[in-house]
């Protein structure tokens, strides 16, 4: 794992930029690195005692802002805000541009339940209620950058709701977004807005868009250019008949 990028830190909390491909919390494999264990080791080397308070998780391939409590004083305040849905989370996702464009803003509300190993789905009955608000952030000839604001915290919620909207995230092989242009699911936790769990001061923590998003856009445009170049051209002018 490369060196961690610290986005915000004080005596009570720390927010880091999670890289893709790294689990947020330890897995069943003790030899596998995780964001929590790596950060705890770095903080212990700096003299911090105890363990991090973990109240937020990102999927394996998702990158972006993750915040942790460093002290016992910060832990309950941070836990309360995440559990009450008071933390405002903003994600960015890259999707292929569809033939029919979505509205500038839209919302998806459904009940989400497990639908097999490692997969969730919207269901008619049962499950847990989930709502996500979406906005078109940018448009390009071959791709769209979509802003997602989850109002609930269900597993795979944004991925499921974008797939339900006919806009699977590029690189998301689980929900229909497999693409040669993307090596991983292009979902990024771009911003967290909350109150400091000890002082009550407002915090706004941001992470810039990873280079993988621009790389995928460029790959899509190159693919489109090659397809146009190979397309048969119709002859110009009139054809004389004998």
The shape, in one word, is globular
The first-level CATH class name: Alpha Beta
The helical percent reads 10-25%
- What integer is the average pLDDT? 92
Written account of the structure:
With 242 residues, the protein is an alpha+beta fold. It has a single domain (5-224), classed as Pseudouridine synthase (2-Layer Sandwich), CATH 3.30.2350. It is 20% helix and 32% strand. It has helices spanning 35-45, 75-83, 157-164, 211-230, and strands at 5-9, 13-18, 53-54, 63-69, 88-96, 105-114, 120-123, 128-139, 143-150, 187-195, 202-206. Strands 1, 2, 3, 4, 5, 6, 7, 8, 9, 10 and 11 form an 11-stranded mixed β-sheet that branches. The relative contact order is 0.16. The mean pLDDT is 92.
């Amino acid at each position: 794992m490369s060196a961690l990028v610290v986005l915000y830190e004080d005596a009570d909390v720390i927010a880091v930029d999670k890289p893709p491909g790294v689990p947020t919390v330890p897995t069943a494999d003790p030899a596998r690195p995780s964001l929590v264990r790596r950060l705890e080791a770095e903080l212990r080397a700096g003299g911090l005692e105890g363990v991090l308070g973990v109240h937020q998780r990102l999927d394996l391939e998702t990158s972006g802002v993750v915040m942790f409590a460093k002290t016992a004083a910060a832990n309950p305040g941070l836990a309360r805000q995440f559990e009450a849905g008071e933390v405002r989370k903003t994600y960015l996702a890259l999707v292929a541009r569809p033939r029919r464009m979505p509205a500038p803003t839209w919302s998806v509300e459904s009940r989400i339940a497990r639908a097999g190993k490692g997969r969730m789905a919207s269901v008619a009955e049962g499950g847990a209620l989930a709502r996500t608000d979406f906005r078109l952030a940018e448009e390009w000839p071959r791709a769209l950058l979509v802003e997602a604001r989850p109002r609930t915290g269900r597993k795979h919620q944004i991925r499921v709701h974008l797939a339900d909207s006919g806009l699977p995230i590029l690189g998301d092989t689980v929900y229909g977004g497999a693409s040669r242009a993307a090596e991983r699911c292009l979902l990024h936790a771009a911003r967290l807005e909350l109150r400091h769990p000890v002082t009550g001061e407002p915090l706004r923590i941001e992470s810039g868009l990873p280079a993988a998003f621009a790389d995928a856009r460029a790959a899509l445009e190159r693919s489109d250019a090659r397809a146009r170049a190979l397309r048969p051209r119709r002859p110009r002018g009139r054809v004389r008949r004998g």
